Each structure stands twice: as C-alpha cells, then as structure tokens.
Amino acid sequence: MPIDAQWVGSMPELYDSRLGPALFAPYASELARRAAALAPATVLELAAGTGRVTTQLVRALPHAHVLATDLNDGMVAWGGAHVPGATWQQADAQQLDLPGGTVELVVCSFGVMFLPDRLRGYREVARVLAPQGALLLTVWDVVAANAFAQALVDALAVVLPEQTPDFVARIPHGYADPDRLRADLAEAGFQDVAVDRVVLLGRAPSAQVLAEGFCGGTPLRFALEQRGQLDELTARVAAELELRLGPGPVEGELAAYVVTARRAPR
Ligand SMILES: C[S@@+](CC[C@H](N)C(=O)[O-])C[C@H]1O[C@@H](n2cnc3c(N)ncnc32)[C@H](O)[C@@H]1O
Hints:
single chain; alpha/beta; Rossmann fold; seven-stranded mixed beta sheet
C-alpha cells in the first residue's frame, strides 16, 4: 500500500473528529442529496473512510443496500462501529471483489486522488455498475481555492522551510482538473459526465483542531514523523494556522468538483 494512502493507529479517529466536520461533512450532504435523487436500490461506496458520507447515504436511502468499502482496515473498523446501517468491507477501489453489472450507484467522496491507477479504478467501477448505473464522486479543487489547505501549505513552508512536505498539493489537491476528469472517465467507459464546481463553507472550533487533524489524521503525518517530533511540529503548525485563520472558531471557503457519470452501454 502506498504510504500516501495509509490510515493506521489513531489516524481514523483524528481524521474523523478533527477534519470530518470541517472539510468532509459539507460535501457529504451534497452527495447524499444527489444520491437520493437517483433512488438506487444498491449503493457501493469506495474509499468510505470513517463513514461521513455513509451515514448520510443510509439516512437518505433507507430502502437501499449500502456496501461501504475502504482500503484501510482501521477505517473499515471505525466505519463498521459507527455506521452499522451499512455493510462494511475492506476493498481496494482498483480491484473489487464483486460480480459485474450488479450495482446501481457507486459513490466515492474525496478518494480517487489517492488511487495510483485511477483509470483502473474507473474501469472497475464501470464493470460492477448495472446498465445505466451511475457514479458520483468528489475531488478537491486546487489548494489556492481552499482556505484551510492554503493556510496549511503556507504554515508548513514556514515550519519546515528546507524539506517542506508536498503531500497536500500533490495528493488531495493534485487532481483538480475538470478536463482530465472528463477524459479519464470517458476513457474508462462512462458517458454523460457532468463536473460541477461546488463552493461551500468549512468551519472548525479552532486552528489547533485543524492542525491536529491535518498533521495527525492524514498521511501528511508520515512526512512530519520523518522530519521531527509529531507533537512539536503539530504545535508549530497550529500556531502558524492561527496567525492566518485567527483565534477561536475558524471559517474558510472550500471548493471541490462534484462529478456524476453514467456507465456507457457496452
Ligand atoms: C480523504 S479520505 C476520504 C474518506 C471519506 N470518503 C470521506 O469523505 O470522509 C480518503 C480515503 O481513501 C481511502 N483510500 C486510499 N486509497 C484507496 C484505495 N486504493 N482503495 C480504496 N480506498 C482508498 C483511504 O483509506 C481514506 O479513507
């Protein structure tokens, strides 16, 4: 498993509690609303993480069977404990152990950026989708369009000027290209690809909470651990974030692409 895609130990808990409400919950509502409009009977969620979207899918589609999957066992364990309304399984999105043509809707919230081979992942989705089945996914826009990510990148450049980790721009914000999204999905066997740029407001209780989430609850953690003591670096990042975002509760604009596509006839 690539180090940039690993969530181990305390990472699922830090990710869910510190970053979930600020960054992922706003788009979870957007995805659940769109999923409900499609009214599928079977939903496969890929890269489901701690189940922020899963919770809302289960609520929005009470009669659907929701299979939530993730690469990391720690995420699957967390999700299974906190969102029992779905079935949880470990799965690499690039290699699904499911029969072809059986799923009506596939949902992937902020997961495809982590796939080493996205086309392979998209082809797997096309394979498991039923005829006319749909894919719904989200991808972050560039760092500069996301206030918290920009503040983090600036903070890291001050705290670690010699060896600044590039994880944030390279992975979560490294696929912010609507033309490429459209081209990749068309090549993998999708049609009617719609890419909407959706801007929402993120809120967190403090810069400290965001620093704990970014530094301890994402794979940025591994780059920090290679460069020094995680606690000390997190405290310094928190201080820099506070300079940029202010003391007390913080707010920032979030921007992401919400993508819908249909499986093309074979
Ligand atoms: C930023 S989190 C998003 C989690 C969740 N979808 C959400 O919106 O909160 C990215 C997730 O992708 C998962 N992931 C990374 N590579 C994966 C792969 N190859 N297959 C499935 N999941 C993967 C990680 O384990 C992690 O849970």
